[in-house]
Task: inverse folding
C-alpha cells in the first residue's frame, strides 16, 4: 500500500511539474506577443505624431504668426492682440439679426449666416467658414489696418457648398 502511495505521489508531482512548466512557457509567449503588439502600436503612434507635426508646420506657413513678411508689415503691433482684434472684427457681424454681411448671402429660410472659424492668412487676407445650421461654405476676406488701428473688411470671394443647401 505504501508503494502505491509513493507511486501516486510521484505521478501527481510529475503532472504538477508538467502543468507548471506548460503554464509558464505559454505565459512567457503571451507576454512576448503582447509586448510586440504594444511596440507596434507605439511605432504607429509615433509615425502618426510625426505626420501631424509635419502638417502643423506646413499649416503654420499660412498664418499671420508663421509669415515673417506679414509680421514685418505689422512691426508696430503686437501680433497676438492684432490677430485677436481682426478675428473679433470678423465675428462681430454674427450679432446682426440678418447674419454676417461678409458672407455675401441673404438668409435662407430665415436662418442667418454666421462665421464660425477664422484664420488670418497674412497681412491682407482672411479665410473663414460659415454656416446657417444646415448649409456651409467658405469665404475669403481682404482686410486693411489703417494708421489709427481701425480695421476694414471686404469680401473677395465666397464659396457655398451646394450639396449642403436644403
Result:
Amino acid at each position: 500500500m505504501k508503494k502505491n502511495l509513493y507511486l501516486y505521489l510521484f505521478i501527481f508531482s510529475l503532472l504538477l511539474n508538467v502543468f507548471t512548466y506548460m503554464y509558464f512557457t505559454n505565459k512567457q509567449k503571451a507576454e512576448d506577443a503582447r509586448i510586440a503588439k504594444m511596440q507596434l502600436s507605439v511605432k504607429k503612434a509615433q509615425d502618426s505624431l510625426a505626420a501631424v507635426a509635419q502638417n502643423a508646420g506646413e499649416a503654420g506657413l499660412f498664418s499671420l504668426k508663421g509669415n515673417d513678411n506679414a509680421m514685418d508689415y505689422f512691426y508696430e503691433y503686437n501680433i497676438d492682440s492684432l490677430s485677436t482684434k481682426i478675428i473679433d472684427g470678423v465675428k462681430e457681424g454674427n450679432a446682426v439679426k440678418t447674419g454676417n454681411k461678409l458672407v455675401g448671402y441673404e438668409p435662407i429660410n430665415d436662418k442667418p449666416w454666421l462665421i464660425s472659424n477664422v484664420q488670418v492668412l497674412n497681412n491682407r487676407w482672411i479665410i473663414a467658414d460659415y454656416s446657417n445650421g444646415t448649409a456651409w461654405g467658405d469665404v475669403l476676406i481682404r482686410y486693411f489696418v489703417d494708421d489709427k488701428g481701425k480695421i476694414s473688411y471686404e469680401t473677395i470671394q465666397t464659396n457655398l457648398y451646394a450639396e449642403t443647401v436644403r
User: Anything to note?
Assistant: The mean pLDDT is 87. The longest strand covers residues 136-145. The chain has three helices and four strands. The helical segments are 2-59, 68-73, 79-92.
